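Input record (one chain):
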Amino acid sequence: MSKPTTTSKPTTTSRTKPIMIVSGVAVAAVLLGVVSFTATRPDSGGASGSSAAEVSADPNAGVYPQLEAYARRDAADKLALGRADAPVVLIEYADFKCGYCGKFARDTEPELVRKYVENGTLRIEWRNFPIFGEESEAAARASWAAGQQGRFWEFHRAAYAEGAKEKGFGKEQLNALAKEAGVPDLARFAQDTDGAAARAAVSKDQEQAYSIGATSTPSFLVNGRPIAGAQPMETFTAAIDAAARTAKSAPAPKGGAGE
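The corresponding structure, as predicted from the sequence alone:
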């Protein structure tokens, strides 16, 4: 896995009101912080080297019901993919400058979409969690701006393409990615990228990530189960299948009819 990245809140988020975390969420925050480090330390032996992130055969093991509430299930969410009432929600906290986020986006996420999103089992909700400085912040805002014109996932695909992050995420490159993503109004895109609404949206996502103890990218929640790092497909399959089985015996989640 990648070198561990320990973060502290940037000044843009530290001025906001602290989030109160109930005891169960606080426990999960500690767990996810430990798992994030374990899953990304240099001697972890690769993506599958972290036993802390493995999924138990018990569908309720490692699941924190309080964390399920972090799923927004907003049918109008432009940074989400899948039905708002899907039985399983995977929340992804990621940075466009993160190499292992790119690996997940290219190698694992498309397969999850084919296997679970397309049949209505899974919803993927993106959270911008920029931790690598100004260009990360700019790319996060740009992705949000592309989403306002219905092109978030196309921008996501372009930004995570092989070699994209090596070009950096300066204004010219972000504009080029927006063109590649088919964003129709580039002038609006540029304005939205630098606007207060984009900054607020990114800050909100960052605060959520920090509140659950995420210290590296990518980090995930699958119906309240923390998973850290670009784990193998089998880890996500096991988590999603377990969550889907549990959801069958639970009341239907609140949400719209889908997207």
